[in-house]
Write a structure and sequence with these properties.
About 45% of the residues lie in helices and about 20% in strands. It is α/β, with parallel strands linked by helices.
């Protein structure tokens, strides 16, 4: 069974390092990002890791984002998503 990881804040900084390490370890990885479309596109181009834009500090945004990710994942693999790894703390705003 393929291992699956969703890394919040996973397209830059520590999150990007986590995403790349999980990918190198054989996981199917996806990464979220909050707003830098250009950096996320560059990260996907360089690594092949899909990125999804949503505010992880917002419940409705996260629920919708995870649903999109699961739908995309179901089309690309037979695995169920299990680990969700926070690379950034949730917003306190």
């Amino acid at each position: 069974m393929t291992r699956v990881a969703l890394v919040t804040g996973g397209s830059r900084g520590i999150g990007a390092a986590i995403s790349k390490a999980l990918q190198a370890d054989g996981c199917t990885v996806a990464a979220t990002y909050a707003g830098n479309d250009e950096a996320a596109a560059k990260f996907t181009e360089e690594t092949g890791i899909k990125t999804y834009k949503w505010n992880v500090g917002d419940y409705e945004s996260s629920t919708a984002g995870i649903a999109r990710w699961k739908k995309s994942l179901a089309r690309s693999t037979s695995s169920s998503p299990t680990p969700v790894l926070p690379a950034t703390p949730p917003s306190t705003k």
